[in-house]
Amino acid sequence: MKGGAVSESAPIYYEEMSKVAGTENDKQSITLIATDDAYNFGDYITLRSRTGHKPQVLTDRGAIISERMAEMMDAKVGDTITVTDSSGTERKVRVDGITEMHIGHFMFMTSGGYKHVFGERYQSNAYMVRLKNHETSNVESRSAKLIKLDGAKGIVQNTTSKKQVATIVDLPDQIMEVLILAAELLAVVILYNLTNLNVSERIRELPTIKVLGGLGVLVYRRLKTVDMLGALKSVE
């Protein structure tokens, strides 16, 4: 796949598989990506461990699975897992590595690994594409054009995954902003109620205060003291 907007591309085998697992024991979608060029595969997708960022090497005997998939299936390196392919056939796959990925369930293989697991000759059916312009608007525009090509069934954009990650990361900040605003409003309400309560008490004491004198000075001095204490308490 070549074009003025494309930086580089590589043929792959792409298939949506599944597994009944998870806390709800429901059907989970698993994306299989197989390549016949393991050496340059890292130019498109980085396979590394979470701890120490150790590179995960593709082999011809098994697969590298994503971290979330490993957690879902309680799988470790060296284990054999069972997944269901698009035809409904169960396939046994050895876990050769676990790669750091925060969203989705993925399984990566070499063409040799694919043949070993599926017993079929590897044949690519999709492309991984890198655009020269990585801006979201350009990716969406190019995707709309590519989907119109003959033989194109669908397009998966990594910008979608990035948006999901950004949403998850930004969510705590948004919640914190709401909590801060709520705390400030609560402080205002408390100070307002304290002031009204203090004024009401002073009004009830008017006859005594008039006899003793110093009505204005006493009321405002008490109000100022209460407001200052309330403000300090809200800051804490």
Automatic annotation (TrEMBL):
Domain of life: Bacteria
Protein name according to UniProt: ABC transporter permease
Protein species of origin: Bifidobacterium breve
